[in-house]
Structures are given as C-alpha cells and as structure tokens.
Amino acid sequence: MRTLPGPLRALSQTLVIVAGILLILLTLLTVADVVGRNLWDQSILGAVDISTLALVAIAFLGLAAAEIEGRHVSVDLLEMNLPTRARTTLALIRTLLLLIVGAVLSWGILGTVVSAFERSETTNGILRLATWPVKGALLAAFVLFFVVAIWNSLNEYLDMRDGKRLDDESHIVHQAQAEAQLITHTVIDREEKK
Amino acid sequence: DDGADYVLHYTTYSSATSDQSRSAQRWAEEVERLTDGGVSVVFHYSQSLVGADEAVQATLDGRADLAQVGSIYAASDLSMFTVIELPFETKNPQAHMNTILRLYEESPVYREDFDRQGVRLLFPLPLGTIAMGLNEPAQTPDDLAGRSIRSGGLASEVLLTSKVNPVAMTATDIYESMERGIVDGYTALALANLSTFGLTKASPYVVDPGIGAYSSSIVVINEDLYQSMPEEYQRALDEASRKGIEFGLEEMESAGRIACEELTAAGTEFSSFSDADVAAWAEKSTIADEWVARYAERGYDAASVLDDYRAIIADEESASDYEDPLVACMEGTL
Amino acid sequence: MTGAAIGALLTVIITFIVLIAIRFHVGLSLMLAGLVGVVMLRSTGAAISTGANAPFSSSADYGLVIIPLFILMGIFAVKAGLAQAGFDIASRILRRLPGGSALASLAGSGLFAAVTGSSVATVATLARVSTDAIVKAGHSVKLAAGVVCAGGTLGVLIPPSIVLVLYGVVTEESIGQLLLAGIGPGLLTILAYAATIMILVVRTRRATAGTEDSLLERERAAADDASRLQMDWLGGAFLGVIFAVSIGTIYLGIATPTEAASFGALAALIILIVRTKMSQLLGAVKESLVEAIGLTAMTFLLLAGAGVFTYFLALSGASTALVDAVISAELPAYLVLILCLAILLPLGMFLDGISMILIAAPLLHPILTGYGFDAIWLGVLIVKVAEMALITPPVGMNVFVYSGTVKEVGLGTAFRGVVPFIVADIVVVAILILVPQIVTFIPNLSGTS
Ligand code: NA
Ligand code: NA
C-alpha cells in the first residue's frame, strides 16, 4: 500500500486544525452571548450570523482527514463475498465514480464561489457577512477530500489487481474500529497495559 | 398533472396554510383555469425544495420555476427590491404592494436586478404592518431598552437605536422562547402570522410600534421559461398576476381576523406608540441613508430608487384608504 | 406522480442500492443517486447546481450548530477519562448483583454511546474489554455479544443525542423537547436490558449450581476483583456536572439546546484542562479537536447527501404522493404505526442510525402525525426503532462490528446472543406505545410547550 503524499496529509491536518480552532471560538462566542445577555442585557450583535457561517467551515474542513482515517460510512456486506475479479473491477468502478462526482461537484462548487463573489453575496443577518470566503473554504475542503478519496480508491484497486488486500477485514468493522480507537483509545490502552 | 404542457415547481418558505401560500394557490388556480389546464403548478412549502435564501438562484439555475422571494432574503440577488423593507415609510399595505409592482415598470435601476438574475416579477404578497408582541408592557420605544426581542431584517436595526438586543430566531421557535423567557418579545411579524406560530396565546401585550409595512415578498418566475411559453399562456400568467394583490390582501385579512379573535379571547392588551414617539424614533433612524450608501458603494443609483419609491408610495397612499388588519383589530373594525 | 417521476424514482432507488452494494460512500451515494433523478426530471444544469449548493445549504443553519458542540463535549469528556470513571463506578456498584460484570458492561456501553453518540464505535470500543470481563466472570460469549451490541443502542435515547437532534432538524420539531423526551425511554431500555441480563444469569446459575464450575462462585471471584478497582469518584461527579450543564439547563428552561451544548462543551474542556498534566494538555486538546472535526465532517457529508436525496424526493412528488396515499387510506392508526416502524428494521442492513433518520424521518413523520400521533413521542419511537435495526437479523451493523472485533465469536453466535435483548426492545417499544407518558412526562414537567 502506497502511503499518502506528505503534503496532502499535512494540508488535511491543517484544515482540521483550522476547523478545530473555529469550533472552540464558536463555543466561546455562544457562551459569551448567553452570559452577556443574562448578566448585562447585552448580547453579541450578529452572533447567530457569525456562528452559522463558521459552522459551514467547521462542518466540512475535516472531510479529507476523515477520509484518511477511513471514517466515512460505507457498507461492504455484499462486496466482500464476491470473487476476486469482480471485487477488483468494482474497486476500479468506485475510483472512476469518485473521479466523476469529484470533478462535477468541485466544478459546481467553484461556480458557487465565483457567483457569490460576483454578486457580493452576503448572509441575511444583521451583519451581512460576505459568503464567498466560506464557500471558498468549502471548495478547498471538497477538492482535497476528493483527491484523497481518489488516491485511496486507486491504490485499493492497484493492490487488488496485484492480489493484495483481498483478505482484508470488513470495511464496516475497520471504520468502526478506527473511529473507536480515535475517540476512545484511553480505554483500549488501559486494558492492554493490565 | 400529466395533461399540462407546463408543470411549474413553486418553492416557498411559507407553510401550506399560511395566508401567503393560500394567495399563491388562488393565483395558480386562476392560471390553470385561464390556460384550460395547460399550465399547472406544483407547490413545495416550508423550504421543502430549496431554502428561502436560495430561492432566486434556484429559479435562475433551474432547481425551481417559480419562487416566493422574501425581501429579507433578497439583499444579494435583488438588492434594489429591498428598498421596500425600509421602516417608517408607509402603514398602508395596499399602497405598498402597488408600489412594488409599479417600481418594476417605472424604475430602471430597480428592474435591472431582475433582468440580470433572469427572473420576472409576477406579483407581490403583502405581509402587513409590523407588530410587536411583548411579555411586559411598553408605552414608548425607550421602554424597550435592555429587552431581548426576536427580530430580523431591518427591524433589528430600528430596535438597536432603542438599545434593544435583537435576537435572531426562526419564527417556529418564538413561542417556546417567549414561554421560557429566553426572549422578552418578538417583532418582524405581522398580525396575520401570529396564529400560525401559536403566538396568539403567548402575547400578553401587542404593540403597533409604528414601523409600518416594513417587509414583503414577491413571486417570480424564470424569465427564459416565461419567454418560451406560447403568448396565450404568457397572457394568462399576466392576467392572474394582476389579481395577485387582491388575493393577497383578502387572505391576509382573513388570517389577521383569526389572530385578532384569538388574541382578544386570550385577553391581550393592545396599544400603539404615539405618533410623536414614532416620529422621534424615525428621526433617530438613519437606516434609509445607510441603505442608499451601502448600495451606492456597490455602484447602484440607490438614491434614485429611494426617491422613486417615496414618490410612488405617496401617490398610491392618496389613492387608497386601505386599513391594515392590525390597526383594524385594535379599533375593533376587523 | 407523473410517469416520468415514477421512472426517475425507480432509477434513483436502484442507483442508490447499487452504489451502496459496491461499497461507495453512503453520503456520496445519496447525493449521486439524487442527482441522477434531478437530471432525469429537470436538467443537467439543475443537477449540478443542486449538488454544488448542497454542502452550503445543508450546513448554513443555526439549528445545526448544536451538532459539533455536542460531539466536542462528548470527546472532551471521554479524553478527560469521565466515561471510564463512570464505567469503573458502575462495575464497583453493580458487582454483587447477578451478572454484575454484564451489568457494568451495559452501563459502560450506555455511557460511551451517550457521550460519543456513535453506536457502532461504542461496540468496537468495548467489544473486547467487555467480552473478556464477562467471560472471566463465568458467562457465555453469547451473553457478552448481546450486552455489547444492545448496549451500543442506548446512546441515541440518552441525551446528548445527535440522532435526536437530527430528527428535530429534519422534522422541525423542538430539539429541546426531543432531547428531554429521550430520557424516560432510555432509562426504561436500561432497566429492560438489565432485567434480561439478570434473568439469563439466574437461569444459568441454577443450571450450574453445585457443579465445580458453578457460575455463582466465578461471579463472586470477579466481584472481588472489581472491588479492588481504583475508584475515580470525582470523574463520576464531573460526568454529572456535564450532564447537568448540558441537559439540566434545557430542562430548567435557562438555555436553548444550542446554548446548553456550548456550556457543556466549555465545561468539558475545563474539566479536561483540570484533569490533564500540563505537558500532555495541548496534545489532548488537539487530539480531541481532530476527532470532533472528523466526526462532524462525517455527519455533515451524510447531511449534504441526504439534502440532495430529499430535494429529489420533493421534486418528483414521491414524498407527498406516499404521505397522501397512506393518510387517505385511513387505515387503523396503530397498524400504520407498527408498519412504519417495522420498515425501519431491514434498513439497518445498510444504513447507520443517522442515515436512516435522515432518509426515513421526513417521510414517516408527516404520515404518522397525519394519523394524529404526538410528534415528540413519535420522534423518540422512530429513533428507538431505527437503533433497534442495528441489532436485528438478518444483518445489523452493531452485530457485524462486534463479530469483526471479537474474532472468535461468529455472526451466528452473536445474533443468538442478541435475541433476548431484541425481545426486551420489543417489550420496551410496546410499553412506550401503551404508556406514552414515559416519553412525554419529562418534557411536560419541564414546562416547555
Ligand atoms: Na446520547
Ligand atoms: Na436489521
């Protein structure tokens, strides 16, 4: 299995960190808004506007990293039991589908960024924030996600063609275990140490 | 619907039973009748097709054919249309509606947005005079200082001049928030909306704040689609649209009447800010100037649109003695 | 529906099933299948616009801010060792009861699932640990499989619950009320599962009584082990604090759910800071953020895909046609209810709880409220049954993940272990239908509408 090129990994990580910082700021903004409103009758103007726009970035900037960690939900109950040739062909088909969906969606999202910029599109809240920067972040998140997903899928196909990775575990199990390890490895470590 | 030559998908943020959707339904029936079923309309209510802020874009790119476009969602796409949501300009919804239509024909700057976005204005839908529901009474705008009031659009900016905390919140959440004291009041709604959102039972005090007919919505169609239709269908759409304002005012009144009865039954106390207070409040507000400045910066001749708007409003007001349902409710004449 | 719409609908459904079958991302499958339908009914341009706008329009909604906040809160709490503390305390307190180790695993699963909101991840996390503990106490692996798989389903009812939040978002019902409404049924399910465990264990105890391998003796030995566990009572107390801050404030009407979630996330962060060594703090916070953002992205990709799919359903008229047809059929209301709930069970074959709710709730909710059922009660019931689908045969994702993680337990054995818990679930659902107050009494007590 070929490892993902370093820059792609680094870029994915950077986007996650940006989203993480935004999420912390979002938490603090909401808390400050409530506290201000209750203690000093003073809420933060446009807090909802800001939060909503920040959410869009928070929601999708982690796409590529989640793909690297194998988190996205997919189901392989049928696929696993097919003959080798068929599975290899399906891996190729998945790669091609990702390529098509990725190209169309990236192109489409690029269109929304350009349109938002040209129309000076803003939110409809009191602050009237420009939406193109967030839509630009969406574009970056999706393009990177598709590049990583296509890379993973292509490698899976190449490995299968070479007769590798066919005895792999079920993907569902893999995904669940990856998620488990990431969320809760405190438990797993602890039991292993005993 | 299989027999129709044109099946038009209508997207709206309003619910199926709101006065605005009822008006649009009556318009659609009229179109179907006039075209002998050649044109039919499929309704998608409550943003079930596309979101309120996407309505214009969706009509342009083919996700929908017809859309209800609220002025508070139109700042990016139909900037000049938002002139009609400036506060303190008129308290007459009928004059307001006629002005929205006339500007489309008489103000090239106002019209240009529609042409650029590829949508055609069919008819406006009235919202009515802005009402304010409160948990505690308020005699003057200054009494509102320090309160958290659910608001939206330019109404929020008016409230800021009286040191109110405007809270953004979807209309469906207001009832619960009023009950729990998360907000002390709400505005940016008209009398006709109150029953739909259960607010007739959660409004001990209803005030006419004097802001007037501050917001509205319009129904638009994809211009290319309209142009592709045979002339008889175009004429049918135009003819039905000419009845749009009448349908809208009728439906708004009947929804307002229901709300008025429910509020009265619930023991709501009605009041209005005095003319002097409203005049002073309007004086403090620089919203119209800011509106002109904001769009002038983007290259619009916004000042001309505002001048046209005020001139046509004055003209239409003199031709109409229409009384808003909120005022009529307070006077017991609804 | 027109002929063209029916053709498009069939194409979309077949496309979706094929994409799922060839192991394409579920979120992208929903999106792609929906877009094929939009091309058929409108135009390629409309389809591209639909797909391109879906990520923004499905996430630019203040009502959804609560999702990453709850996820972040849960992960901070786990990183701070609070779920572990709760697990240990449960092991200690429950150790003398029949099936103490299994009860503790159940509590542990409930806690992890409640905090992390992911049923399958909970199963994967606790499968090995719980199975070892339960088997060591003398029980069968079948019991272990049942406890872990069923325990994973507890999280969706016990707040915070992302699935209940999403239900509220897609049906426009009150999220605060839904979260509060999950508490009663969550507790009832725990009781039902605990009773199931104790009945199974007491039966085995009787069968093995007096033999050298007596279950009672082995349970006592395991209980003695549990009493030597180092207790982290403070951790347990902190867990209570987070629950009070994030759910108690909703109950008291002090905060909206989103505000409550932000307080919960901040409280969890502060607790993490207090409980982590300075040298490890930055790492722990960073790890938590990375995990929270990953889970958030996964959830929102499903939301974006479901957004396109439901746009197609609305456009084709399929949603309204289905809802109108069922409502105008005027069937007996409870028959419709049971049929609607039963439809969910096979969906657990290829969908997780979130996807199931995103697809099914917009259809089932209007049908069943049309038959006069209470909206909040319905929400809890639908979410409860959707989660049951993860453990019911022929395939349930929880069972699949369990069997994949604990290799020596085959799928067949695992399913046999789950059967008693499915029976318990059916009893719970029946009770919830007969005594709806179990769902509604907490939201009603809270004095909200
Ligand atoms: Na939960
Ligand atoms: Na199942």
TrEMBL record, chain A:
Residues passing through the membrane, by range: 12-32, 44-68, 89-117, 137-154
A Pfam family (short name) is DctQ
What's its membrane topology?
Multi-pass membrane protein
Where do the Tripartite ATP-independent periplasmic transporters DctQ component domain residues begin and end? 26-152
Key words of the record: Cell inner membrane, Cell membrane, Membrane, Transmembrane, Transmembrane helix, Transport
Localization of this protein? Cell inner membrane
Q: Which InterPro entries match?
A: DctQ, TRAP_DctQ
From what superkingdom does this record's organism come? Bacteria
- UniProt keyword Transport, yes or no: yes
Which PANTHER family does this UniProt record tie to the protein?
2,3-DIKETO-L-GULONATE TRAP TRANSPORTER SMALL PERMEASE PROTEIN YIAM
Q: Which family does it belong to?
A: Belongs to the TRAP transporter small permease family.
Q: What is this protein called?
A: TRAP transporter small permease
Organism for this UniProt entry: Flaviflexus equikiangi
From TrEMBL, chain C:
Membrane-traversing stretches: 12-41, 62-82, 141-167, 179-202, 233-254, 260-277, 289-314, 334-364, 376-401, 421-442
> What keywords sit in the KW lines?
Cell inner membrane, Cell membrane, Membrane, Transmembrane, Transmembrane helix
Domain (TRAP C4-dicarboxylate transport system permease DctM subunit) spans 13-438
Which InterPro entries does the record associate with it?
DctM, TRAP_DctM
User: Where's it mainly located?
Assistant: membrane
Q: How does it sit in the membrane?
A: Multi-pass membrane protein
* Compartments, as annotated in UniProt: Cell inner membrane
PANTHER family tied to this protein? C4-DICARBOXYLATE TRAP TRANSPORTER LARGE PERMEASE PROTEIN DCTM (PTHR33362:SF5), SIALIC ACID TRAP TRANSPORTER PERMEASE PROTEIN SIAT-RELATED (PTHR33362)
| Name of this protein | TRAP transporter large permease
- Species assigned in the record: Flaviflexus equikiangi
Taxonomy, top ranks, is: Bacteria, Bacillati, Actinomycetota, Actinomycetes, Actinomycetales
